[in-house]
Amino acid sequence: MAKHILMVDDSKTVRNLIAFIVKKEGFHVTTAEDGLDALEKLYAASNVDLIITDINMPRMDGFTFVQNLREQEAFRDVPVIILSTEGQEKDKEQGLSLGANLYMVKPAQPEWLLKNVKMLLG
């Protein structure tokens, strides 16, 4: 069975691009437009194996979303990649301290993103 990735970004273009890249590698993808939408889809999904999330989003930003995930037993161990245009050290440190497994800066090379996805999925 294909691994399931949740892609969270307020940009439809970015969501579609990342979904296209990972689907080509055989992954199943669900997309969400912000943290609240992502939480709703997580509760409805039977399983999500990895999450890729942006930081700057309306309603619930990526930092708050990751913090919410890590506070819930069901999602505590799901690998999270933050993929953001925010490349300052303080942003990276905050994302990792809240529980993200990896912090990547946009634009990320598709090959590098896939390599990291596969690494986190074992």
TrEMBL record:
| Xref: InterPro entries | Bact_response_regulator, CheY-like_superfamily, Sig_transdc_resp-reg_receiver
Entry-annotated residues carrying 4-aspartylphosphate: 54
**What name does UniProt use for this protein?**
Response regulator receiver protein
Q: Per the record's keyword annotation, is Phosphoprotein included, yes or no?
A: yes
Q: Which Pfam families match?
A: Response_reg
Q: Does the keyword Phosphoprotein apply?
A: yes
Top-rank lineage group of the source organism? Bacteria
One BP term from GO = phosphorelay signal transduction system
Domain named Response regulatory: which ranges? 4-121
What is the organism of origin for this protein?
Answer: Desulfonatronospira thiodismutans ASO3-1
What are the UniProt keywords, alphabetically? Phosphoprotein
Q: Which Gene3D superfamilies match?
A: 3.40.50.2300
